[in-house]
Design brief:
- By secondary structure, the protein is of the alpha/beta class.
- Helix content is about 50%, strand content about 20%.
- The chain is elongated and about 85 Å long.
- The chain starts with 9 loop residues before the first strand and ends with a strand.
- About 35% of the residues are buried.
- The protein binds 3'-deoxy-guanosine-5'-triphosphate and magnesium ion (MG) (2 copies).
Length: about 325
Amino acid sequence: MTFSSHNPPLVLIADDDKVVRVCLRQAMEQDGYQVIEAVDGENCLAMFSKMQPDVVLIDAVMPHMDGFTCCQQIQKMEQHLEGNGTPLLMITSLDDEESVQQAFSSGASDFVTKPIHWAVLRQRVKHLLNQVRLYEQLQSANQELKRLATSDGLTQVANRRRFDEYLQQEWNRMQRDRLSLSLVMCDIDFFKVYNDTYGHQEGDDCLKKVAKVLDRAAKRSIDLAARYGGEEFAIILPNTDLQGATRVAKNIQDALREIDIPHSGSKIGENLTLSMGVASTTPSPMINPEMLISAADRALYQAKEAGRDRFCTFTP
Ligand code: GH3
Ligand code: MG
Ligand code: MG
C-alpha cells in the first residue's frame, strides 16, 4: 500500500484521439484535477509508472496496445510495485455486454461509454477518487490500531502481548533452523524508592529513558525490546548465543551509566541501575518458551541477590 496521492488528484488520460483528450482534459480541469495525457497504451504505461496518477481514464480502442491490455499491464505493474489499486476507468464506444465484461475482467474499476455523458463521467471519477481516499484512511487507521495493540502506551516499546507472541514465533523459527535464542530480563533496582523520592511522574519519565536505552541495545532488526510489566523489561535476541546476549547486557549497563539518571535513594550508588538475567538456549520440542523465561528470571534473581547493578546468566 502506497500513499502517493497527489493534491489536487492527478488524472492520467489515455486516448489516441486528440480531440477526445482535449475534451477530457477540460472536464477534469473544471473539477480541479491535475491532468497528464498519454497518446496510446504503451505511452500510458510509461506515464503511469513515472507519475503514479490517482486515477486513469483509458480508451478501450487504441492502436498498438488496446485499453484492455493496458489495464492488465497496469495491474501487473501495481502487483510488482505493491501499489494501492489505482482506479482505472475504461472509456468505450462498445457498450455491448462482451466488452463491458472484458473491461472488468481486465481490471477496470468502472466504465463509461462514448459519446461521453460528461456529468456521468465526472461523477464516476469523483466517486472512484473518494473510494481510494476512504481505503487509504482505513489502511492507516488499521496500521495505527495494530501499533496501539502491540506497543506499550508509556514507553512505546513492544508490550507484553507482543512479547509473548514474538517469543513464540522466534522460538518456532529458531527450533526449525537449530539456532540459539536468548532472553535478557531487566529489572530496575530500587524503583519503588525512586518513585517515593521523585514522584510517579518522574518515575514514568525514567521508565521511558530506560526503555530507550534497551531499544537501542536491541540493535538488529530481529531483536525486540519489550516492557514485560511494571519496571521490568525483556529483550528477545533471536539467533544469538549466551556470549552474544551477555554482550548486549554489558552494552545496556554501559549505556545506562552514560545517561546517568540520578537515584539518591538507591542503596548501592548515586545513579539508577538495572539487574539483568540472561538466558540462552537452542529451542527444541523438549523445552518451551516459558522455561527460557524462568531461566532468565532465575538469573535475574541471582543478580539481585548478589548485590544488583549486574547481570547473571543461566542456561535451562
Ligand atoms: P528491586 O531492586 O528489588 O527490584 O526493588 P524495586 O523497588 O525496584 O522493586 P519492587 O517490585 O518492590 O517495586 C517496583 C516498583 O515499580 C513499584 C511500582 O510502584 C513501580 N512501578 C511499576 N510500574 C510503574 C509505572 O508504570 N510507573 C511508575 N512510575 N512506577 C511503576
Ligand atoms: Mg520488579
Ligand atoms: Mg525493581
